[in-house]
Design a protein that fits this description.
- The chain is of the alpha/beta class.
- The chain has a single domain (about 5-185), classed as Maf protein (Alpha-Beta Complex).
- It is built from six helices and seven strands; from the N terminus they run E-H-E-H-E-E-H-E-E-H-E-H-H.
- Strands 1, 2, 3, 4, 5, 6 and 7 form a seven-stranded mixed beta sheet that branches.
- Helix 3 (about 90-100) packs across helix 4 (about 135-140).
- It is globular.
- The protein starts with 8 loop residues before the first strand and ends in a 12-residue tail after the last helix.
- The protein binds thymidine-5'-triphosphate (TTP).
- Thymidine-5'-triphosphate binds near residues 13, 14, 154, 155 and 174.
- Pfam families: Maf.
- Nucleoside triphosphate pyrophosphatase that hydrolyzes dTTP and UTP. May have a dual role in cell division arrest and in preventing the incorporation of modified nucleotides into cellular nucleic acids.
- This is dTTP/UTP pyrophosphatase.
- It is found in: Cytoplasm.
């Protein structure tokens, strides 16, 4: 196998968006999803929650490899409340009705375990949505997009037409803040400019 085909990091995530975002900045990842308990702790803030999960995913995912390992977690937060992923059509409707015409926050934490230990960061993005019509919520559900997405929407898909303004990181809303991720990875010896594995 050519050196350029060697993974540069391990990605402890089942999210195809995260793998694609890393690939978009030249980072080839070995994908190893992990299963961690995503129940929030009593009284835990949304920021503390996503950071804890990102660290946990990186820690569990790093077992058995010398590659730096990245874990991440994204939460959609409205009035301090985490919305999670919709479990049904009705749940997705409730979420989009709540987000309609409002500003909410998307919190994405990234943690990278590697030679420098565990490094992490949390990026908060403010997203303003225009009012969403009831028939649009039905039509949107029918696209299949909301099902596996925090908050029941995908900004990289059809929900882009609901997003009036965004302050922060677009890539963080999709699943990985690329600016901050590249910085964390560089500190762990993974460069976006080197085609092969880190030395
Ligand atoms: C708000 C929003 C979320 N999402 C996605 C990003 C994440 O994949 C998902 C949030 O769930 P996460 O629990 O962060 O990630 P995941 O379950 O998909 O993958 P893993 O835990 O294995 O890393 O929602 C979008 O794709 N677009 C959006 O606009």
């Amino acid at each position: 196998m050519a050196e350029t085909d060697s993974p540069m990091l391990r990605l402890a995530s089942a999210s195809p968006r995260r793998r694609e975002l890393l690939a978009s900045i030249g980072l080839l990842a070995e994908v190893r999803p992990v299963d961690v308990d995503e129940t929030p702790l009593a009284g835990e803030s949304a920021g503390a929650y996503v950071l804890r999960l990102a660290r946990r995913k990186a820690q569990v995912g790093a077992v058995g490899t010398r590659l730096p390992t990245l874990g991440s977690d994204t939460a959609v937060v409205l009035d301090g409340r985490i919305l999670g992923k919709p479990v049904s059509r009705g749940h997705a409707r409730e979420m989009l009705e709540a987000l309609s015409g409002r500003v909410h926050e998307v919190m994405t934490a990234v943690a990278v375990s590697g030679p420098q230990g565990m490094l992490d960061t949390c990026v908060v993005t403010r997203v303003a949505m225009r009012p969403i019509e009831s028939h649009e919520i039905d039509a949107y559900w029918a696209t299949g997009e909301p099902a596996d997405k925090a908050g029941g929407y995908a900004i990289q898909g059809r929900a882009a037409i609901f997003v009036e303004r965004l302050e922060g990181s677009h890539s963080a809303v999709v699943g990985l803040p690329l600016f901050e991720t590249a910085r964390l990875l560089a500190r762990q010896g993974v460069s976006c400019w080197s085609a092969g594995a880190p030395s």
